[in-house]
């Protein structure tokens, strides 16, 4: 018997008289809770449990609502409800509805809502919304990552929802992907833990307010604990039950540790469930635990276990706080406004202090030039002192000192370069040419002193007399060029030709880089291809349409020469690149096969030499095997062949990747060419002439936008009429329109996918 008071549950069990007179069996239990709901409606459950948590989430407080209990106790019904009946919807759809209702009531804030749906099945993370066409399955497995902002799931898709119907569609999409199974305790038992998260971000529409709030609501539907003896689970269901019970045990351990104020370590990382809910169990979060129990004596042990868990959860302390953040863009604007006010206030103080007009703005080019002139006159001695106005002017004075010093250094260096020729001491070729030209002293060192930059100063030869002109006297560059010509006199290439060839070598990329660049250009041309304008004259200059359409092969040739010429050109270029890659891959394959055959022959010869050495007797020297020269050469040859094989094989793999990519581009161009041809053929020979005006460039209909079969009838179809009729006659009123629309769209999508899969399977058979 279970009796419920406002805040406690008392359980009394009659003693088993079969155990005799002396019977110490416990018959009474009492649990104090925050509230008890018995035979309550879904409306009352939501009002009591979740309404305040969701309302505070829009004020910046995080919230978590968790359903816990035995399998078959009604957790999923409480959290999700039945999607077929609007009145029996659960906490989750009602929370979404409340969020969007409250957004409508707050016109002073711009609020964005995002949702995600996570499933934890057999200690693996799955995205229940990955089946959406714009998401797709993740290549890398999802992981739980911690940062100073909290815990988030790397790889989990988060979806922006601007209206209530979109949020319901995401909810129903995730519900259809959940894993369920049947056993004796529950026909539709959830075999995984699911966490539906609503992310809220609210910005004030007042531009001066730089603060904004963020929050999230975690709605957790835990899989039910079960006794294997009662559920009769076998095979895969037995394995799932083992993982479920294990994770729930770790969750209870974490709750016990959170309730103990003396504990320093909380075991959150024992399982994926507790790790994902680390920042949602206690701490900065409004936490509500909803425990579903049976009222039957046959389920007493599981009921007591669930109530003990709820009692331990009451010991967990929470300290929810508003999650405030700052908008960087608004903060900058506010600081700029404050800076302008401070400048105005400073100007008032300057005027009250009888100071001259002081400009606190950044200096312009004219002011900087004036300071530069003052600094130069100060250095030349024509100006005794520089007047100090403000701190910004002092900083600019020092900056101009640096500029003047740098300019003087450059002038000195340019003067030295005009008078002397500077060479790098690390340039051994230039040093050799200098030595041959006789620009060295008696000791064999370069004439001149180093200037601190690793250069030497070259001067005329020591034997030259000053003040006399000598025909043999040449500039240093002429001497270098003459010595270079002497060394390379046999080369027919002139210096000019050598410079040109060198520049070409520097500018021309390698073949592989060129191929990649070429392929990138092709890809850009293909991906950015738009419907090409017709090269034909204007409509009034066109020849009259033939009475019967020409054959498609003939029309296709005309199309490739006129409107589809650009697509056809790109298609041919991509195809030529593809053929060239295939040819190179074939040649590489032949080289690999030749190397493989040579490796096999070398291995056979090497094995023969080894067997011969073993027969003749092996010799060792200091523990090392002694082999003859022929076997050693075979080993080196085999090593080189293996190296060549690896290199060629890597090149073949790269070529295959390029071939696959080029094939994709060719297929894309071919499909685009055929599609554009069909559009052009229908527009040119089937659409009535009086409708051609709408298809002109700038007309109301883009080419190919409307099928030919429907270009004359653009009315509503049956589905549109049904949707309008459904919104009018829905019995639950306008609040249920978004709920039912999302349900209908989800069912239509899944029915379509099932039909397409069935057609594909039938086609394969």
TrEMBL record:
Compositionally biased residues, Pro residues: 544-553
Biased composition (Polar residues): 500-511
InterPro entries: KIF6/9_C, Kinesin-like_fam, Kinesin_motor_CS, Kinesin_motor_dom, Kinesin_motor_dom_sf, P-loop_NTPase
GO molecular function term, any single one: microtubule motor activity
GO biological process per UniProt: microtubule-based movement
Biased composition (Basic and acidic residues): 512-525
Any one annotated GO CC term: microtubule
CDD domains: KISc_KIF9_like (cd01375)
Tagged with keyword NAD: no
Keywords from the UniProt entry: ATP-binding, Cell projection, Cilium, Coiled coil, Cytoplasm, Cytoskeleton, Flagellum, Microtubule, Motor protein, Nucleotide-binding, Phosphoprotein
Main subcellular location: cytoplasm
Ranges where the Kinesin motor domain occurs: 1-316
Domain of life: Eukaryota
Subcellular location: Cytoplasm, Cytoskeleton, Flagellum axoneme
Subunit and interaction comment: Interacts with HYDIN.
Protein name: Kinesin-like protein
Gene field: KIF9
């Amino acid at each position: 018997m279970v009796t419920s008071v406002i805040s406690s549950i008392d359980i009394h069990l009659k003693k088993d008289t079969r155990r005799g007179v002396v019977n110490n069996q416990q018959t009474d239990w009492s649990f104090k809770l925050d509230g008890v709901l018995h035979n309550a409606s879904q409306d009352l459950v939501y009002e009591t449990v979740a309404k305040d948590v969701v309302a505070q989430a829009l004020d910046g407080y995080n919230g978590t609502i968790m359903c816990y209990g035995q399998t078959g106790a009604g957790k999923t019904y409480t959290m999700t409800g039945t999607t077929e009946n609007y009145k029996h919807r659960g906490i989750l759809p009602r929370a979404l509805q409340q969020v969007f209702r409250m957004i409508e009531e707050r016109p002073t804030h711009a609020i964005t809502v995002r949702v995600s749906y996570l499933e934890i099945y057999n200690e693996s993370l799955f995205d229940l919304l990955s089946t959406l066409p714009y998401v797709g399955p993740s290549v890398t497995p999802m992981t739980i990552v911690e940062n100073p902002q909290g815990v988030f799931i790397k790889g989990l898709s988060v979806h922006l929802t601007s209206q209530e119907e979109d949020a319901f569609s995401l909810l129903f999409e995730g519900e259809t992907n959940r894993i369920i199974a049947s056993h004796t305790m529950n026909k539709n038992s959830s075999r995984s833990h699911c966490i539906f998260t609503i992310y809220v971000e609210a910005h004030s529409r007042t531009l001066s307010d730089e603060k904004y709030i963020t929050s999230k609501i975690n709605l957790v539907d835990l899989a039910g604990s079960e006794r294997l003896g009662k559920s009769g689970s076998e095979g895969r269901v037995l394995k799932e039950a083992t993982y479920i019970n294990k994770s729930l045990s770790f969750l209870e351990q974490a709750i016990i540790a959170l309730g103990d104020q003396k504990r320093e370590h909380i075991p959150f990382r024992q399982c994926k469930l507790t790790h994902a809910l680390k920042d949602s169990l206690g701490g900065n979060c409004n936490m509500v635990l909803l425990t579903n129990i049976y009222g039957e004596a046959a389920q007493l042990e599981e009921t007591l276990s669930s109530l003990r868990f709820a009692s331990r959860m009451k010991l967990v302390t929470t300290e929810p706080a508003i999650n405030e953040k700052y908008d960087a863009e608004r903060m900058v604007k506010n600081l700029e406004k404050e800076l302008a006010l401070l400048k105005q206030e400073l100007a008032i103080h300057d005027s009250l202090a009888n100071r001259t007009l002081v400009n606190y703005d950044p200096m312009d080019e004219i002011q900087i030039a004036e300071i530069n002139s003052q600094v130069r006159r100060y250095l030349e001695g024509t100006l005794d002192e520089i007047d100090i106005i403000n701190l910004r002017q002092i900083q600019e004075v020092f900056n101009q000192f640096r500029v003047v010093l740098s300019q003087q250094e450059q002038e000195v260096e340019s003067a030295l370069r005009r008078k002397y020729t500077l060479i790098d001491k690390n340039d051994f070729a230039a040093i050799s040419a200098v030595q041959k030209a006789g620009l060295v002293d008696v000791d064999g060192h370069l004439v001149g002193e180093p200037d601190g930059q690793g250069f030497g100063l070259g001067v005329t030869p020591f034997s030259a007399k000053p003040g006399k002109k000598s025909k043999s006297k040449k500039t240093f560059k002429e001497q270098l060029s003459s010595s270079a010509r002497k060394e390379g006199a046999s080369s027919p290439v002139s210096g000019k030709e050598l410079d040109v060839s060198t520049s070409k070598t520097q500018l021309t990329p390698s073949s592989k880089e060129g191929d990649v660049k070429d392929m990138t250009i092709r890809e850009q041309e293909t991906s950015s291809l738009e419907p090409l304008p017709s090269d034909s004259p204007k409509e009034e200059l066109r020849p009259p349409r033939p009475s019967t359409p020409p054959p498609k092969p003939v029309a296709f040739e005309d199309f490739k020469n006129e409107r589809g010429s650009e697509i056809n050109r790109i298609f041919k270029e991509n195809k030529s690149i593809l053929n060239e890659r295939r040819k190179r891959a074939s040649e590489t394959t032949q080289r690999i096969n030749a190397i493989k055959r040579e490796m096999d022959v070398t291995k056979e010869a090497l094995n023969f030499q080894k067997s011969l050495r073993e027969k003749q007797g092996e010799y060792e020297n200091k523990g090392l095997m002694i082999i003859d020269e022929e076997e050693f050469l075979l080993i080196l040859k085999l090593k080189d062949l293996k190296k060549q094989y690896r290199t060629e094989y890597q090149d073949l793999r790269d070529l295959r990747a390029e071939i696959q990519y080029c094939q994709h581009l060719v297929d894309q161009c071919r499909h685009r060419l055929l599609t554009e041809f069909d559009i052009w053929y229908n527009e040119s020979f089937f659409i009535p002439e009086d409708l051609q005006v709408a298809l002109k460039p700038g007309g109301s209909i883009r080419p190919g936008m409307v099928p030919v079969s429907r270009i004359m009838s653009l009315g509503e179809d049956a589905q549109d009429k049904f949707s309008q009729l459904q919104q009018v006659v829905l019995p639950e009123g306008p609040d249920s329109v978004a709920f039912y629309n999302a349900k209908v769209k989800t069912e239509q999508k899944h029915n379509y996918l099932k039909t397409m899969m069935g057609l594909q399977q039938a086609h394969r058979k």
